Each structure stands twice: as structure tokens, then as C-alpha cells.
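Q: I have 244 residues here and want to know how they pack in 3D. Can you give me a structure?
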Amino acid sequence: MKLKNYLSLLLLLVAFSGHSQKKKVAVVTFYANKMIGFEDLGIGSEELLKNILNLRDNPNFNLSPMLEKYHSNFFNDYSKAFPFELLPESEVINNEAYKSFVPKFELKGYDEKNYLVYDGYKYVYEGFNGKFNEEALAKMFADKADGVLFVNINFALEKGFGIGGTASVKMRATTRMALYNKKGEKVFAFSENERSKKTGVMVGGIPVMKPEKILPMCESALEELMGDLKKRIAKIVSKSESKL
């Protein structure tokens, strides 16, 4: 083979190798909101808010198993729908700069009770007025990743069906995923949600907020959400790699 042809072939192989290599993204926050939403009920009573706060503070209202399951599914299954690879978690949560990072709108004192953050991660606010966090984290991991991904889940009560004069409620589980490139510019941000099959009851116009009543509804809603989430993600993010 002539030297000229050999060099041309070598350049093509190098170019193909670089093109075929997937870009990488660092997941920089992963948490669940422990404050159950109730906007859909159209109820703003002090009693309901008190019950929701009591539920949040009740040690029996344990969302950890659900967050663990969602985390496992996210990294082991849903991540395969992304057109990019996720940086190993150990390279994120063990990063010294990340461990010492103080996010804007950092949780302090009372607000810390509102969130259950997956082990090793920080609660990092993303979205409206959160530009500082996106840019800072994108810069922090720029040498290892082409972007940073924010992931969270939350739950909210919704009106169900009334049977025999008895009002019922359902739970809606929602996950938000938001990706930012190396400059801290938004690549995509979307939310997916589903309602629970299980229902709860209202007494005197107020939902029963006991852990043994609310947790099964949360679990049911999350199961419905996770059902075909991988397919939904694939449709939404299919062209996102070109924007990194």
C-alpha cells in the first residue's frame, strides 16, 4: 500500500473513532421532594398544610425505598435511552470540588426537611434564577463531561372520583430532567408524570394524610410513571447529543 493511501486510511480511522465516541454527561443532583403538593385540590386550609407538614416530618413517611428504586432504574435502564453516556457516579460525588461546592439557594435548617437527597449528592436548585448553579457545575466537570444533568421526583395529590358522596384523591408522580452543556446553557428540560391506580379518601373535605395511606399511593404513582419512561425519554432526547 502506498504511503499516501495508508495515511488517508489512518486519518479516516481516527476521524471515525472520534465521531463514534459518545459524549459524556455528569448527573449532579438526584433527589425527591417530601412536600406533597395539593394545588389541584383547590384547598388552602391551615389544617391541610399542617397535615402535610406533619407527614413530611413523620419518620414513617419513608420515601427512601422509592428513591432507591428510581435511582437504580435510572442508571441501569433509563440511561440507555440517552444518546450520551453518564459519567460514573463515583467521579461526581467523590470529586473534591463537588463536595465543597456550595450551591446558590442551598438548603439550610428548616428547608432541609423538604427534600430527600440520594446518598452522596447535593441538593442543587435548577431552573428559574438558578443560572449560577448550572454554569458553576458545568465548568466544574468540563474536563470530564460535555454537560451536567439534574434529576428529581415529586408527588402531588389530585382530585379523584366521588362515590356515594365520598370524595377520593389520587397521587401524581412527576420526574424532571434538565441537561446543560459545558457553558451552562440549557440543552433540554422536561417533566413526565403519571397518576396512581390506588386512591385515598377525604374526610371533611381534607385528605387523610397518614403515612400508611399516602405511601402506597406514592408507590403506585411512581410505578405507573416508570412503566414506559425509557421510551418517553428516548423520544424526547433523541437529538440532544448534537446540542452538547
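Q: Anything worth noting?
A: The chain is about 35% helix and 25% strand. The radius of gyration is 22 Å.
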